[in-house]
Amino acid sequence: MRYRPEHKAEVHQKIVKDASRRVRTEGLNGAGVAAVMRDTGLTHGGFYKHFESKDELLLESLREAFREIADNLAHAAEQSRSEEPWKAIVKTYLSLEYCDHAERGCPLTALGPELARVDKGMKGQILAELVNYKDRMLPFMPGRRSTDKERAFFAIFSTMIGAVEIARILPEPAMREKVLAGTRDFLLQSF
């Protein structure tokens, strides 16, 4: 059977999106090739028609995860007509809905410690994705100069990442919301 010319690209993108969600849910080792391909309805053997290695799939899935969260946060910031854009980002990121769904969230909250342990070759590529993420968020950050905005980005995002990681450990929604709300209030009053 002949496929449309764009079929391979569409299948490739579906594999990357599925792997991106699986990686954020189960970790870097949870996104096994067989499981990712099965989720997409393909065989393990078809993997190498799309990727040279599992590392290539992991990097593309991380790129997709950073793109997805950046798009969601940028959208929240752009829709915030009555408040400063960065505050909408904080409220979105530190919501219980976001906290309870790692598969749709920031790869840093789901994978931070694992990303710190990858080999040097992969670290450089992950750093490039982190820089892209930061650059996408900088226009929305508080501050007049780019150095102020960058400092605010690292302070705000580091605080939010830590709060979400801690909240995800807690068993009860009320406990998670307490951590998230306290952090939200702190950040919104700090800049």
Number of strands: 0
SSE succession: HHHHHHHHH
CATH fold field value: Tetracycline Repressor, domain 2
How would you name the CATH homologous superfamily?
Tetracycline Repressor, domain 2
Mean pLDDT: 89
Q: What would you say the CATH architecture is?
A: Orthogonal Bundle
CATH class type: Mainly Alpha
Please sum up the structure shown:
This protein is mainly α. Helices cover about 70% and strands about 0% of the residues. The chain has helices spanning about 5-25, 35-40, 55-80, 85-95, 95-100, 105-115, 120-135, 145-170, 175-190.
Word description of this protein:
- The model has no long low-confidence stretch (mean pLDDT 89).
- It is globular, with a radius of gyration of 18 Å.
- Helix 1 packs across helix 2, helix 1 crosses helix 3 and helix 8 (146-169) runs antiparallel to helix 9 (173-190).
- It is built from nine helices and no strands.
- The protein has 191 residues and is mostly helical.
Keyphrases for this structure?
Tetracycline Repressor, domain 2, mainly alpha, 191 residues
Write the layout of secondary structure elements.
Layout: H1 7-26, H2 33-40, H3 54-79, H4 85-93, H5 96-99, H6 107-116, H7 120-137, H8 146-169, H9 173-190
Helix pairs in contact: 1-2, 1-3, 3-4, 3-7, 8-9
